Fold this sequence. Notes:
With 437 residues, the chain is an alpha/beta fold. The chain has helices spanning 3-14, 24-35, 38-53, 62-75, 132-148, 170-176, 234-252, 290-310, 334-348, 367-370, 404-422; strands at residues 79-83, 87-93, 99-105, 156-162, 183-192, 200-201, 205-208, 210-219, 223-224, 259-267, 274-275, 278-287, 314-318, 330-332, 353-354, 375-381. The strands form four sheets. It has an eight-stranded mixed beta sheet with strand order 1-2-4-3-5-16-6-15, sandwiched between helices. Strands 10-12-8-13 form a four-stranded antiparallel beta sheet, with helices on one face. The chain has a two-stranded antiparallel ribbon with strand order 7-14.
Amino acid sequence: xxxxxxxxxxxxxxxxxxxxxxxxxQLSKNFLDIAKKPELYDWMVxxxxxxxxxxxxxxxxFETSKLIRAELDKLGIPYKHPVAITGVLGFIGTGNSPxxxxxxxxxALPMQExxxxxxxxxxxxxxxxxxxxxxxxxxxxxxxxxxxxxKEIQGTVVLVFQPAEEGGGGAKKIVDAxxxxxxxxxxxxxxxxxxxxxEAASRSGPLLAASGFFEARISGKGGHAAxxxxxxxxxxAASNVIISLQxxxxxxxxxxxxxxxxxxKFQGGDAFNVIPDSVxxxxxxxxxxxxxxxxxxxxxxxxIIGQAAVQRCNASVNFFEKxxxxxxxxxxxxxxxxxxxxxxxxxxxMDKVNFDVPxxxxxxxxxxxxxxxxxxxxxxxxxxxxxxxxxxxxxxxxLNEDGLPYGAALHASLATTYLLKHHHQVPVVxxxxxxxx
Length: 437
């Protein structure tokens, strides 16, 4: 059956369905109880481990996407695929406005897992070191819960299984495809390995920084290290460039406007006694406002070219803009923050939620959604007891799977609470139907 026929039947059976009015508190508590039941918990653990064993990089998540679609089929949830190459959009509810989205990213990282356990990555050089396997699992868990309560849903929940968060800008491809055209809000959850299970954290306003990458090639004239006067030394030029780049933050940025410029790559020369012809350096720059970000970008290029010229070298700078590597700042909507306060406080307990976590210099392509619709991004605890802390993107990362039910329940609670609040406020736009996603 085609997607459109499937969704037509979906609307026919649900658009006139009687709905029971639940309070958000009732729904949240009910959802967490369901998520903690052994049958649902074991199901989520099995899915997470299967995804973890078979990591796929950005825009290569074909098997992960296939697994997601198979589970949605079993649950009787209609979906659209492919979106942004490997992405999947699932739909639960009436098929009518309002539409609220829940997002999970699917991609892994190009790194070798060094954790020895039964479900270690089976793919050499690839690992789910950022918890995206847990993100997919929690959203599938939420889908299962929401499907069981479909008659109580006052609108439509859009499940966004997104590719390529790790540098590929998969969220931007989702937006550019028009997939969220009718959606009025979106929520995203990211696991944290240093936050206890059952706890969450976020804030209103800027949460994560805008992020970009740069690479520069500094060219001089190679020669023998014993007679440097006949050469033009690009290593010396690159060294001056690196020192000068640090002054952009220490001497040009407002001390109250957090910014970062880090050179993390330096390649040049293969011998102890040979001055090379060229050097390549590269790094990242970050800021919490678009204005500061653009200013950094402009000055990075000026400093590299100018300082290279001082040392008689030429330089070219590449910002990889065509790769969607520029991520905007992640800025949480104030109204959605109040909803998070109510839902998370009720679900987890007010003492288990940090509602004003300090902003972090990390970046997230969830920000592309927030540029076009109100969005809210939060952190969920998955700390493994009695284990030495390993950060995200560590080859030794471990996640506590006891946190999965909390993520599933939070997803489901945030979506249904939003729809309960807004189902009388958002009119159906004539000519805009779900099959346009």
